[in-house]
């Protein structure tokens, strides 16, 4: 299903195939020979989303752009089932396996592999042909690849990347952080009240 959001409509190449249960919302451009499977959600929340040619977005994957972080996914890239890409730039011939998470401001170079349930954190840069092992976390620039049991090291790098400041413009030390975050983000998401179904 396609939706107009903030006055922008999806633009889908006639050679692309979009499952009837996929949701495509807002300023989204989908290139030639792309496949978007059942349950996938591609939503431009104020920033544009561009899929090159021959991109496959599998079942229940989520691709989300923000005003500060648009999304670009290069040619011949596969976004696996239940993967999530938020405000990131993905190169050509990239494999994002089942359950991967890619966060705002991340940049993934050509021919990288992010394996099952791995994470590419906020503002992290993967050089071309980097492999993030199953369940591992890539964090920082220069990148550190860490197994999930190394929480203290992940947190030390992640804290410097400042998720609440970068994504929501809020200081992590704000006493009522979640109150401010949910109210601010909720107001932004409420803009969907004016969306218009196109099919």
TrEMBL record:
Residue stretches spanning the membrane: none
Origin superkingdom: Bacteria
InterPro entries according to UniProt: Transf_Hexapept/Carb_Anhydrase, Trimer_LpxA-like_sf
Protein name: Gamma carbonic anhydrase family protein
Species per Swiss-Prot/TrEMBL record: Microbacterium rhizomatis
